[in-house]
Write a structure and sequence with these properties.
A 6-stranded antiparallel sheet has the order 1-10-9-8-5-2. The chain has a 5-stranded antiparallel sheet with strand order 3-7-6-11-4, with helices on both faces. By secondary structure, it is of the alpha+beta class. The N and C termini lie far apart (75 Å). The protein is globular. Helix 6 crosses helix 9. Pfam families: BURP. Keywords: Glycoprotein, Signal.
Length: 359
């Protein structure tokens, strides 16, 4: 009789564990579906772009996300808790990570384990030339250079050196302090990143860019979740939008020079470029975008053939028709040998997005 009771107890325990596992899966799937539905409600005319869809948090709507958000809110984050969360959430909470042009030995050696050292790290990263988001752009060109059959040299053929990470679950993103230099110590603690490390310098660069004031007539945001990106895009350009992305860029950085042949291109109308949102992929432990609403642009779609392997990159470019509001030291002016105010174009990397009103 006792053996039967023991067997029944074991069977009950196994069933309970199976049910709990099933519940976890259902909750996780439900959370992801909720995020997708929120996105589609705000932007019903567009399918979720692949670069966003593959970055959805695997912990959306789970107890794990709720628990970590509570810890962040109350400031009771332990290293072991963060390490476990980062692994489960698909984040990169690695201190020794080298991603050009974010890090250099000069920038890292300037940082020490004090609050003043954090400011030094930020100053060092800015001294490397990162003053605006466009300082990450290398592939500037003039509209007149778009000639079928012509060629251009691109840095890494629009390959994105930033490794893939997931967005934060919405509840965790909502619990984070704002991305400012003043909040950098708490952000470092949240992701268990030591001061003076390479990732600390990367994060200081990201928060510096995100807290920088917008240009006149421009709006900016740094979404840390797919929900916050949908909110920003819909608030700036409406709900009927189209997402344009560069596809076909190499998965690994090509070595040496990277020339491409211009097979074909299409210039979208100036009217379409009156109000667009450009979202640039920024390095951070979680997926982070720097989005800005810009006006007076022309969007270009082009087919570029790589000389190395004849692969075709379906690329997106932005031509800014008036650069008079840009800083005089903007890299485009030196790269193109043009005065401030002149038209300047640049290509969009493979994980960036351009949101335009639907035709």
């Amino acid at each position: 009789m006792a053996a039967n009771y023991q067997l029944a107890a074991v069977v009950s325990l196994v069933l309970m564990l199976v049910l709990r596992a099933d519940i976890k899966v259902v909750v996780a799937e439900s959370g992801v579906d909720t995020a997708k539905n929120f996105f589609q409600q705000l932007l019903p005319s567009v399918s979720i772009p692949a670069t966003l869809r593959t970055s959805l948090s695997p912990l959306e709507g789970t107890f794990t996300a709720d628990r970590f958000a509570t810890a962040v809110t109350h400031g009771v984050i332990l290293p072991a808790t963060t390490a476990s969360f980062c692994k489960a959430a698909g984040l990169i909470c690695q201190e020794d990570i080298d991603i050009s042009p974010y890090t250099s030995q000069e920038a890292i050696s300037s940082a020490v384990t004090t609050q003043a050292g954090q400011r030094q790290a930020q100053a060092a990263s800015r001294a490397m030339g990162i003053k605006t988001i466009n300082d990450f752009q290398f592939d500037f060109f003039l509209e007149e250079q778009l000639v079928k059959g012509g060629s251009m040299n691109l840095v890494e053929n629009l390959h994105d050196p930033i490794p893939k990470r997931a967005f934060l679950p919405f509840v965790v993103a909502d619990s984070l302090p704002s991305l400012t230099s003043a909040n950098l110590p708490k952000l470092l603690q949240t992701f268990n990143i030591g001061e003076g490390t390479k990732m600390a310098t990367i994060m200081s660069t990201a928060v510096y860019l995100c807290e920088s004031p917008a240009l006149m007539g421009e709006e900016r945001a740094c979404p840390t979740s797919i929900e916050s990106m949908a909110e920003f895009v819909s608030s700036q350009v409406g709900t009927n939008v189209e997402a344009l992305t560069t596809t076909g860029a190499p998965s690994t950085a090509p070595s040496g020079n990277a020339p491409v042949k211009i097979l074909d291109f299409t210039k979208r109308s100036l009217k379409e470029g009156e109000h667009i949102v450009i979202c640039h992929n920024l390095m951070f432990p979680s997926q982070l975008y720097y989005c800005h609403h810009v006006t007076g642009t022309k969007v270009v779609q082009a087919s570029l053939q790589a000389a190395v392997d004849s692969s075709v990159i379906h690329a997106i470019a932005i031509c800014h028709m008036d650069t008079s509001m840009w800083a005089s030291e903007h890299p485009a002016f030196a790269a193109l040998n043009i005065p401030r105010g002149a038209e300047a174009c640049h290509w969009i990397g493979q994980n960036d997005l351009v949101w335009v009103p639907t035709r």
